[in-house]
C-alpha cells in the first residue's frame, strides 16, 4: 500500500495532466523545512504526492467528520492557461470563484491557483500590458494569500528557460503541503480524541478507531517522524490492553468477539515481511485472532524502532509483549492447542534475537543486556515443548505426541516471503559475511527441532550456551549460573553427568559465598546425583556428607544421605588405593560439617618438656546422627616472634615498622633466607616456605570441583590428638593430648578430623586461640635452712627436684663441707645416744637417691655442726658446702653463713695497785646453759683469784642477756712489767643447748693483758670542801703522784668538763714534768653551774711529747694513757653544791 | 498482594526472606537471587554519575508469572519484592508504598540494640508486620 498525499486539480485539467508527471517527480527530489506547531522542533522532510481530479465526495466526508487523513486531499490546485485579461474577466474568474467558494463551504483553506504562461504571446504583442492576468488573480482572490497565486512558464514548450520558474513552483507546492499537514494533523487529532471519549458508548468499535489512529501513525511515518508514529501505536496498544483487562466490567464491547477466534494459527512475528500491510488488510476485511493482531502491532512498533536505529528497545519490549499477550489470551479465555503459545513465544524470541545479532556499536552492549533473558526464554519454551512432545532425553515420542508435533507444525505456519532488499535498505545493520549461509527463521528452526530428538537436543544445548555466554557478557553472573543449573539438569537427563558437574559446582560456589543456604542445599542434591551417576565415590561421599549437615533440608533427606555417606565411606579406602593421584584429594572443608566452639589448654601448671599437653576441644557436629571419627588432630606451630626478632636484626632496606607489621597469625610457616657474598656481605634476603617438600602446602584452586576443598594445609608435625571419638549431634567435648617434645611458644593452627580415609580440614580457626609454652624443667638440688648458729647442731634440708632428668639406679649426691664444718644425716631423736654423739658428723656426706624418678621431688633432712670462733673475727662465720650432682659435672657451691652462739669480752679494772679482770658473756641467737667458767694463766708468778660465788645450777642465757664474771690478778712484786709485758689468760666455759642439755661443749677465749701496772695516781680536791655555792669560783687542787717508775717524764693534764655542770675559769689544760719529783700539785679554778650533788670534773692524763726538738717533727703529740696505768682515786666523788645567797655576794 | 519479600544484606546474603506460597519458595528464591544482578547493574550505573537520591529501583525484570521490583537503602541493603504479573490493578506507586513501609519496618527492626548488623532478621514483630504488608492489609 502506497501512502502518498493527495493533491486535487481543477480548471484546465488536460493542461495539468500534461504537467503532472513532472510535478510529482520533482517533489521528492529535495527536502523541505517543516516548521511545526506547538514549539516542536523544525524538521526537514521529503515529500511524495499523488494527484486526483477535484471531487466533492471527499470533502463531504470531511464535513461529516468521517474522514481519514490518508484519503483526505491536502492541497487543491486550480490550473489555468488564460493569458488574456478579457478572457479572464469573462469566464475564468467566475470558474475560480465557484471553485473557491466550494472549498470554503467545506472548511478547506488549502488551495493554490496556478497560471501557466506562454512567452510566444508576449512576443507577438509589441506593447507591455498595464496589468497581467496574475495580477488580476491576486487582486481578486489573493488579497491575504499572495503566496497561493503563482505563475509558471510551461516547461513542455520552453525547457531551458522555465527551469527556475518550475523549481519555484515545486518549492511552493511542498511548502503549502506541509502547511496543510499542520492544520490537518491538529484537526485529525481532535477527531481521534473525540472518538476515544466515546469509547464507552454502545456501538463503539475499536477496529474503526484503530484504523483512524493508525492512519495518523502512517502519516507520521511518511513524514519521517517515526517517534510520533510509535506513540500512536503505543497508545493503541495500551487501550487494547485496558479493554481486555476490564472486559468483565461491562458487556458493551461487542467488537471483542471479533478477536475471540480460536488460535488455530500461532505463527510468531516476522520483522522482514515483503508486504508490511498484509495483516492490516486482513484485519479490515476478514478479522484476525488476538495473537495475530498483537503480532501486527509489535511488528509495526519494531519497524518504527528499527527506523530510529533503536534495536535494543525492540529487545527490551519483547518480553513485556509476550507476557502481556499471554495474560490477555488467558483473560478472554481463548481456546488453543497445548504448546501453541510456547511455539509462538519461541518463534517471536528467535525473530528478535536474529535482528539483534546484526546490531552495531554503540547499541551492542545494551542489546546484549536485553537479549540474554530472551535467549533464556527461548530455551525454556523449547524445553516445555520437548516435554510435551516426548523429545526430552530418555523419552521416545508416542503416536499421540507425534500427532501433537504435526498439529504444532501446521499451526506455526510457513515463513512469509522475505524482503531481501530490506537489509540493503537499512545500512545501520551489520552486513553478513558472504561465506555465512543465511540463518533459518525461528519457525523453521522450531519445526526442525520438533522433528527429532537429536535436533531438539542440539538446538536446546545451543540456546542454553548462548544464554549463558550472553549473561556472562553483560556480567549477570547469577542469571548465567541459573541457566547453568538448567543445563546441568539437561546433561544429567542425557546421562552425561560429567558435563553437569561443572555447572552445579559453579552455582554452589557462588551460593555458598553469599550464604544462600537453601539454594546451596538444593544444588548439593543435584551434585550428589551427578557424582553417583559418574561413579566418583570420593566426590559422592563428600557431597553426601555436606547434604547431611544442611539444616535447611528435611530430616528424612538428611538421614538418607547420611546413610549413603556412611555406606560409601567404607568403600572409600578401596577406591582411594586404586587412585593414588594427588589431584583426587580426600579433603573436605571442616566448617561445612562441624563448628569449632572453643579450644582450651587445660594444663594447670606450666607444661614441661616430655610432659603431656591436655587440650579440651569443644566442637558442634552438624550431622543428624552420631559418627565415629578415627582421629582428631589439632596442630600447633611456633609463634612468629622468633622470626620477627631475626628479621629485625637484619639490616634490610625495609623500615622496621614494615617488619613489625607482619601478621603473626600467618597461615604459612615461613622462614628467613639470607644469601651472603664471599666477603660475608649480605647479597639478598628472601622469605621462603619452610615445609618439607613431600607435602604440598598450597594447592591450585581448580575451577571445577576442587574449589570447595581447603586450599592450605598446615604443618602437622606437632599436634594433639584423640582417637576413635564418637561425635554426637550437637556440642561435643573432646579431650586431646600429646607429649610435649619441643620447647617454645606455640599456637594452634588447624583442626583435622579423619573418618576412614576422609579428612576434614578446617580453614583458619574462628578465633585466636591462647598460646601455650613448653619449657624444659632442669633437675635441681638446693639446701634449705634458716638462721644457722655456730656451736650447736643446726638442721638443714636437702631438696632434690628431679625435673626431666633420668636418674641412674645408683644416683647419689655428694656434699663436701669446708674446713671446721661437719655434716650428717638427721638422726631419729628417739636414739638419744646416737643423737648426742658428735662423732657421727663428717666433713663429707654421700646421700643416695634410691629409686629416684623423673619429675620426683624429695626432701632429705640433714644436720650441720661447726665450732664457735674463739675470737670475734666477723659478724658471720662463712662456710660453704659443695654439691656434686649426677646431672652436672661441676660442683655447685652453696654458701652457708653461721652466727656465733655467744661472745665474750673482758675489761681491766684498777684500784690503786690492785688489778681486777671482768669477763662479760653476752647471749646472741641461741638459748644456752652455762656452767664452770674458769680463767687460767700459765705464766709463773701470776695468780688469779676467783671472786665469783659458787653456783650449783647452770646459768641460762638467751638473746641480749649478759653474764659477768670477776677475777683478781695478782702479780708477784718481784716481777715487774718490764719482765712480763704481756700476761696471757685463758677463759674457758662449758655450754649446752636447751635441746641437748646433756651435751656439754667447751668454749674457750684467750685474752691478752698489757699495760696492767699502775704508773700514776690522780687526786683532786675542791676547796671549800663541803659547801660550794652556785656560780662561785672554787679552787680545785690536782695532785699527780708517781706510783711506779716509768720512762714518761712529761705529762699533760686536761679537765674534761661538762658544759652544763662545770665551767673552768682560767687554764683547763697544762703540761707538767715529773722528771725529778714524785708528785706534782696543780691549782685550778672551777665554778659549778648547777645545784645538787655534782660529780667531780673528769681529768685526763696523757703522755706528752714536745715537738720542737727536730725539724721533721714540728708538732707535739699527745697519747692518752691506757686505763690500767692511771688510777683516779676521786673519780666517783660528788660535790654538794648549794644555791648562792644574794646577800653574801 | 506480594508473593515474596526479601531483605538482602550489603554482601548479598539474605537476611530475611518470606513467601506467601511455600510450594514456590525455591523458585522465588532463585528469582530473588537473579534479581541481585540487576540491582548491581543499576547501582553500578549510578556510581559514575553523581549519587542518585532515588532509592526505588523500579521493575528489575519480569517473568511470565512474576514481576520483581527492587529498592536499595543508603547502606546498600536491598529490598526485593516479587509480585504476581496478573495483578494488573497494582500501580507503581503502590509498589513504592510497599517499599516505603518495608523500609520503616526494617529501620525499626535494626534499632534493636541486641541486633547485630549482618545477622538474619529474626524479629517476630518484623515478621508479623511483613506478613501483613505482603497480604495487602498494612
How are the secondary structure elements laid out?
The complex is a heterodimer of chains A (1145) and B (138).
Chain A: E1 6-11, H1 13-26, E2 31-34, E3 43-46, E4 50-53, H2 56-64, E5 73-80, H3 85-105, E6 111-117, H4 119-124, H5 133-140, E7 149-153, H6 163-197, H7 206-222, H8 226-245, H9 278-285, H10 290-307, H11 311-331, H12 340-357, H13 364-389, H14 399-412, H15 421-425, H16 442-451, H17 453-473, H18 477-493, H19 497-513, H20 517-534, H21 537-548, H22 555-570, H23 572-578, E8 587-589, E9 594-601, E10 607-608, E11 612-621, E12 627-638, H24 641-649, H25 656-660, E13 670-676, E14 682-689, E15 719-727, E16 730-739, E17 744-755, E18 758-761, E19 772-775, E20 780-784, E21 788-790, E22 794-801, E23 812-817, E24 821-825, H26 832-835, E25 844-848, E26 857-866, E27 877-884, E28 892-900, E29 902-911, E30 914-923, E31 928-937, E32 942-946, E33 955-957, E34 962-971, E35 982-993, E36 1001-1010, E37 1016-1023, E38 1028-1029, E39 1034-1042, E40 1050-1056, E41 1062-1065, E42 1069-1073, E43 1079-1088, E44 1092-1095, E45 1098-1105, E46 1117-1120, E47 1126-1128, E48 1134-1138
Parallel strand pairs in A: 1-4, 1-5, 5-6, 6-7, 8-18, 10-19, 21-28, 37-47, 38-48
Antiparallel strand pairs in A: 2-3, 9-11, 11-16, 12-15, 12-17, 13-14, 17-18, 17-19, 20-22, 22-26, 23-25, 23-27, 24-26, 27-28, 29-30, 30-34, 31-33, 31-35, 32-34, 35-36, 37-39, 39-43, 40-42, 40-45, 41-43, 44-48, 45-46
Chain B: E1 2-8, E2 14-19, H1 25-48, E3 56-62, E4 66-72, E5 78-84, H2 92-110, H3 124-135
Subcellular location (chain B): Cytoplasm, Perinuclear region
Family (chain B): Belongs to the TRAPP small subunits family. Sedlin subfamily.
InterPro entries (chain B): Longin-like_dom_sf, Sedlin, TRAPPC2L
